[in-house]
Amino acid sequence: MKNILYVLFLAGLSLALFSCSSNSSTSSTASTTEVEGTWITSCFQSGSYYRIQTITITGTDVVAKYEFHTDSSCSTDYLLYEDTYSSLAIGDSVTFSSGSTGHKFSLNVVSFKTTLQVASLVSASNTASYCGFSDWELNTVKDYTGKTCSSILYPVANTTFLGMYKLVGNNLFLGDFISTGSYPTLVYNTIIYVKQ
Hints:
It is a single chain. With 196 residues, this protein is mainly beta. It has one domain (2-195). 11% of the residues lie in helices and 47% in strands. The protein has 2 helices and 15 strands. It has an 8-stranded antiparallel beta barrel.
């Protein structure tokens, strides 16, 4: 299920406008202070669903929530993902072609969890033994860290992800979190997290 939504999300992102780090990258480490707090997007369309994304950063701990809804006001719940990370480390600074600045960063996987919020999704997930589980329940959190879900293998705990962000005032822009040993080169300009 997440793989379908994930593919739809990535397809949507591939059509988004990007900002490249074309100027410079300066080697340094920084405090997490500039990104600490809660950052939230407005309700936006993603495939046939609508989403609100929230990132909460406390020290070196990060919790990313992805709320899926079936209506354009994001008031009818469908599905919730919650990804938890630890050991956030802010690395090299980046200056983007726009003149904005940001940093590369790394963090470690703690867990990937989901909550199914409609009965039809619970039934379909149980029938398909989604992520190897046949005991899905409505509004009950399920941890799928390290599980294979519809042929997608999700990382195990302590997997290191690399990322990059751009900070413009109270707006945070992120690139993908990747675990291949190289940092992303882009941040997505169409998904804007606003500091709360």
